[in-house]
Amino acid sequence: MLETLNLWFALGFGAGLSPIAPGTVGSLLGVPLAWWLLGRPLAQHAGVTALLLVLAVPVCHFASAQFAGSDHGGIVLDEIVAFPLAVMGLRALRHPLGMALAFAVYRFFDGLKPPPIHYAELVSGGFGIVLDDTVAAIATWLVVALGLYLWRRYLFV
């Protein structure tokens, strides 16, 4: 029963079973979580996100063992819990268009996996499964934060 429950979490409550773009469908579950966390103090946002990332490591690890040790495309918990990191502290994104922009950038980085995201993906086990999405979220944060800074600095003079 614990294996089934673990797999249910790892598959994003079934979102990872989507026949089309399971990673994107799973990532969508991270949007309401990120939205909610953006309404909280930064320390709480950071704490909850860190806790979820840490808890996701063993969940993804044991789920990957059920898929012969691979980062199976259906394992989407890592995408769900990493997305709030992509918007951390960027309250301007607590708007549907802002959140959609951050989501698109996150999916771009997670799908394309440019360096250093690619190198993070080479780490094995649950830590590696979560690490590449965490690095994609950090890359997203950097791009979106820079975009917001430039927007405010040069377009709203």
From TrEMBL:
Membrane topology value: Multi-pass membrane protein
Cofactor annotation: Mg(2+)
Enzyme class: hydrolase
The keyword RNA-binding is assigned to this record: no
Subcellular location(s) of the protein: Cell inner membrane
InterPro entries noted in UniProt: PgpA, PgpA-like_sf, YutG/PgpA
Catalyzed reactions: a 1,2-diacyl-sn-glycero-3-phospho-(1'-sn-glycero-3'-phosphate) + H2O = a 1,2-diacyl-sn-glycero-3-phospho-(1'-sn-glycerol) + phosphate
Pfam families linked: PgpA
Xref: CDD domains: PgpA
Pathway: Phospholipid metabolism; phosphatidylglycerol biosynthesis; phosphatidylglycerol from CDP-diacylglycerol: step 2/2
Keywords for this protein: Cell inner membrane, Cell membrane, Hydrolase, Lipid degradation, Lipid metabolism, Magnesium, Membrane, Metal-binding, Phospholipid degradation, Phospholipid metabolism, Transmembrane, Transmembrane helix
Transmembrane segments: 20-38, 50-68, 127-151
Domain YutG/PgpA as annotated: residue spans: 8-146
Record EC number: 3.1.3.27
Alphabetical list of SUPFAM superfamilies matching this protein: YutG-like
Coiled coil (UniProt feature): none
Function of the protein: Lipid phosphatase which dephosphorylates phosphatidylglycerophosphate (PGP) to phosphatidylglycerol (PG).
Descriptive protein name: Phosphatidylglycerophosphatase A
